[in-house]
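tool=predict chain=A
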Amino acid sequence: MKILIIEDDEKVGSFLSRGLKAEGYVTMLLSDGSTAVQTAHQFEPDVIVLDRMLPKVDGLALCRQIRTRQAHSRILILSALSEVDERIKGLRAGADDYLGKPFHFEELLARIEVLAKRQVAAPPQRKLSIADLTLDLDSMQAERAGETLALTAKELGILELLMSNQGKVFSRERILTNVWGLNEDPLTNIVDVYVARLRKKVDDRHEQKLLHTRRGLGYYLQG
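tool=predict ok
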C-alpha cells in the first residue's frame, strides 16, 4: 500500500516516513503543499497523511483540491488544531479521518489500517459539462463544441472550480485559495488576468457566453 505524507516539520515527517516504511508501506514525503496535488495524481497513494498547517498553503484548501483529483485516496489530516469545530472543518473539506497532535504512532497505524480497508466507491462523476463545454477530470482535457481547448494548469484549475459549482459566484480571494492555495492576496490582479485568458479561450468564438462576471463579487460559469 502506498502512503503520501505531506508534513512540513522535518522531524515529524522523517519519523512518519521511517515508521510507516518499517511497517511495510511504500511512502513518499513532501515538506510542503506546493506540488501536492500533482504528486498525488502521479503517485496515486492509497492513503494521504496531510498536515493541516502548512507554510503558504491552507491545509483545508489543499485537502479539497486533492479530493477533487484523487477520489479513491483516503485522507487523514494531522493537526495541532484538534478542537471539535476544527475536526468538523477537516471532515467537511473532504478528509476521511482527523487525528490531533501529539499522537501515538500505534493509533496512527490503526487509523491507516481502517482507512485502507474501506471499500472505495467509484467516483460519482468524472466528467463535468455546461452547455457544450466539457471537462474530463481524469485526463484534465477541456473541450468546447467538440474542439479541444489549450489550457494551462491554473486555467484548468479555475475552470474545474467554476464548472463544479455551476452558477455559484467565486470571489478573487476564494479562487486564490482554491486554485493557488494562497491564504493571502499577493496584491496583484493575477486572478483577473487568468480569468480573462480563460474567457478568451472558452467564449470568444462562440455566440453563447458561459463565463460571466458579477461586478464587485466575482466570477461564475452558467449555461
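DSSP finds eight helices and 13 strands in the chain. Residues 190-203 form the longest helix (14 residues).
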